[in-house]
Amino acid sequence: MSTIERLEEIDLNITNRCNIGCSHCLFAAGPEKDDNLSLGEIESVLEDGRKLGAEEVHISGGEPTVRRDLEKVLRIADSKGYFVRLQTNMWAFTPKMLPLIMETTDEVLTSLDGLEASHDLIRKPGSFQKTTSSIDRLLEVGIRVVVITAVQRKNYQDIPKLVEFVSNREVNAHFLFSITPLGRATQEDVVSVIEWEKLVEKLYETYKARDLSTDVVCELHHLRGDESFTFNGAECRLYTRNHAVVLPDGRVYPCSMFITTDKFLGNIKKEPFEEIWSNSPVWSFYDNRINDPSCGNCKLIALCKGGCPGYSYFFTGDITKCDPRCEPGMYPVCPSWKLNLRKATLSCSTWRVMKR
Ligand SMILES: C[S@@+](CC[C@H](N)C(=O)[O-])C[C@H]1O[C@@H](n2cnc3c(N)ncnc32)[C@H](O)[C@@H]1O
Ligand code: SF4
Ligand code: SF4
Ligand code: SF4
C-alpha cells in the first residue's frame, strides 16, 4: 500500500564534474564530465519543490564547488526559504568562502573516508589535511558540520578510531554508510553483512554509555526479526514519495538506488519538475513493487516488505523480487535507514533520526 507523504527534501546534484575522482564514487564523477543544471533549471526546480512542500535541499554533485556560479546557486536556494545543505569534498574550499556560507547555508556536509592514509588512497593525496583543516575553520565560525564516511574494505579497520577523531573535533554529526556497489564501486569493495553488524554493535556499545556532542549515525544494512529496533519497509521512498533526486543531466528519480537505470520519472530539461513529480507515468513501474513484493510466505514480510526495491531491480532486473541481500535469520534494511547511536533512535531519514 502506498503511504504518500508530502515532498520533504530534494537532492539537487548540480554537476557531475569533480576535481578529485574517488575510487568508490557511485556517480563515477570526474574532471572529464560536463553535465550541469543551468541556473534557470535550478531556480525552477526549487520553485516547484516549494509548491510540492519541500523545505530542505541538499546541494551536491559531483563536486558543487567546481561551479563558478555556486554563489548564485546558494543564494537562489536560500532566497526560497529552504534549509540549505551543501555537500563538498573541500578540495577547492578557501576561507574566502566562509562569508557566503555563513549567509546562505545551514549545514555543510563533507566526506572523511578513513584516517589519513586510507582517506587519501580512496580520495586524493593531500585531501585528508585539506578536509580536516576546512572542518575546523567552519566550526570556528559556528557553521554546523556533518562528516560522512563511506565505509568500504579500504577503510573498515579505521572506523572506530575515525569516529573518535571526528567526535573529538566536536563535529555536529558523523554519518557512516556502507558503500553501494554502483558507479566505480564494486561488490568486492563492500564489507560483508557480518562485518557491518559487528562494527555497528561495537560502536553502539562504545557510544551509548558516553556523553558525546556528536551524533554518530549508522546505516543498518540488516536487522534480525527479534531485535528491538524494527524497520518498516513501507517507509521506503518509493512508497512515501517524500524525497526527490535530480541529476545534473536533468533526470528525476525517487531514490538514488535507481540512478543507473532508465526508470527516471522525467527530465526537468524537458518538462517542469512539478508536473514530473505529480503525474509521471513511470510511478506505475515503482507501484508494481508496492502491490506485489514476491517473497512467498515469509513471516517477516509485514516488516520488511521484501527489502530494498533498488537492490532487487539492480541485481535481478525485476523490481518485484525479494532483495538479494536477504540472509537466513536476518532481513535486509533500506540503505537510507539510520541508527543514531547516541540517542538510540532509528529512522528512514538521516535528518529525522537526529531530531527524534
Ligand atoms: C557523490 S558525493 C558528492 C559530494 C562531494 N563531492 C563529496 O564527495 O562529499 C556525496 C557522498 O556520496 C558518497 N559516495 C560516493 N560513492 C558512494 C557509494 N558508492 N556508496 C555510498 N556512498 C557513496 C561520498 O563518499 C560522499 O560522502
Ligand atoms: S565522491 Fe564526491 S569527491 Fe569523490 S569522486 Fe564522487 S563526487 Fe567527487
Ligand atoms: S527479503 Fe527476505 S526477509 Fe524480507 S520479506 Fe523477503 S524473504 Fe522475507
Ligand atoms: S534505498 Fe531502497 S528501500 Fe531505501 S528508499 Fe531507496 S529503494 Fe527504498
Count of helical stretches? 13
Number of beta-strand segments: 14
Helix and strand element order: EHEHEHEHHEHEHEEHEEEHHHHEEEH
In the CATH hierarchy, the third-tier topology is known as TIM Barrel
Class derived from helix and strand content: alpha/beta
Mean pLDDT across the residues is 89
N- to C-terminal distance: 25 Å
Uncertain residue ranges: 347-356
**In one word, what is the shape?**
globular
Bound molecules: S-adenosylmethionine, iron/sulfur cluster
Overall number of domains: 1
Largest β-sheet summary: 12 strands, mixed
- What CATH architecture do you see? Alpha-Beta Barrel
Walkthrough of the structure:
This protein has about 350 residues and is an alpha/beta fold. It has a single domain, classed as TIM Barrel (Alpha-Beta Barrel). Helices cover about 30% and strands about 15% of the residues. Strands 11-10-9-1-2-3-4-5-6-7-13-14 form a 12-stranded mixed sheet. Strand 3, helix 3 and strand 4 form a beta-alpha-beta unit. Helix 1 (about 40-50) runs parallel beside helix 2 (about 70-80). The two termini are about 25 Å apart. The chain binds S-adenosylmethionine and iron/sulfur cluster (3 copies). One iron/sulfur cluster (SF4) binds near residues 238, 308 and 309.
